[in-house]
């Protein structure tokens, strides 16, 4: 894996403005609609890059940043209850150096794990449009290419699961028929990769 290439992808992600609806929404949340508990904080308000160890064998794929979570903190799965659960679990399993994640500059480091989202901007009502998913597809494809040590992918939610399957197919990995079904704690062997579905 070329660290510089992954850094370049992350720079492209944070500069992305392909989806007008998402650009407007993430900026409006950051500028005008901050929650009372976070009024003293400057929101990130940009697309979220991937986070973790470039040599990772574990890739975790979620749906999108939360409007007052990742869109505020600048790190995927950070600043909301799902992130609290995820990072505590990663810490217990030895993938994280600390059990909490509060901001992109909090010292958290992942070992052998990398985390991304299908959609890099917080979508209104947590529901991205099909064209927004297509616009972000290139980033997931490129990350899968660059994270060449990945052997296990945990897809958090059906949209993440479906998009990981599609990305793997675009990489030439045979997807069995019938197509793998989404369900909590189901695992599928796809070439050298094990795909695990989770809610």
CATH topology: Uracil-DNA Glycosylase, subunit E
Overall mean pLDDT stands at 95
Along the chain, the helix and strand elements come as HHEEHHEHEHEE
The level of helicity is 25-40%
Query: CATH superfamily membership, which one?
Result: Uracil-DNA glycosylase-like domain
CATH architecture label name = 3-Layer(aba) Sandwich
Strand order of the largest sheet: 1-3-2-4-6-5
The general outline is: globular
Q: What is the highest CATH level, the class?
A: Alpha Beta
User: Quaternary status of these chains?
Assistant: single chain
Distance between the termini: 29 Å
Count of the separate structural domains: 1
Question: Helix/strand-derived class?
Answer: alpha/beta
Which stretches are low in confidence, meaning pLDDT under 50 for 5 or more residues running? none
Residue share in β-strands: 5-15%
General description of the model:
The protein has 199 residues and is α/β, with parallel strands linked by helices. The chain has a single domain (3-198), classed as Uracil-DNA Glycosylase, subunit E (3-Layer(aba) Sandwich), CATH 3.40.470.10. Helix content is 36%, strand content 14%. It is built from 6 helices and 6 strands. It has helices at 3-14, 20-32, 70-73, 81-92, 130-146, 158-170, and strands at residues 51-52, 58-62, 113-117, 152-156, 186-190, 193-198. A 6-stranded mixed β-sheet has the order 1-3-2-4-6-5, covered by helices on one side. The longest helix is centred in the last third of the chain and has 17 residues, at 130-146. The protein is globular. The two termini are 29 Å apart.
């Amino acid at each position: 894996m070329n660290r510089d290439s992954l850094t370049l992808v992350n720079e492209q992600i944070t500069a992305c403005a392909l989806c007008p609806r998402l650009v407007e929404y993430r900026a409006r949340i950051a500028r005008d609609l901050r929650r009372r508990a976070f009024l003293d904080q400057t929101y990130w308000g940009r697309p979220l890059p991937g986070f973790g160890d470039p040599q990772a064998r574990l890739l975790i794929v979620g749906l999108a940043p939360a409007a007052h979570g990742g869109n505020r903190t600048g790190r995927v799965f950070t600043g909301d209850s799902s992130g609290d659960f995820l990072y505590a679990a990663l810490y217990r399993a030895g993938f994280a150096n600390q059990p909490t994640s509060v901001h992109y500059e909090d010292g958290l480091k992942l070992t052998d794990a990398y985390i991304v989202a299908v959609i890099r901007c917080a979508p209104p009502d947590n529901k991205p449009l099909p064209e927004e998913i297509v616009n972000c597809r290139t980033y997931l494809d490129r990350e899968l290419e660059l994270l060449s040590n990945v052997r296990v992918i945990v897809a958090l939610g059906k949209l993440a699961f479906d998009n990981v399957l599609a990305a793997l197919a675009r990489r030439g990995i045979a997807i069995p028929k019938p197509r793998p079904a989404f369900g909590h704690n189901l695992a599928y062997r796809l070439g050298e990769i094990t795909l695990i579905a989770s809610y």
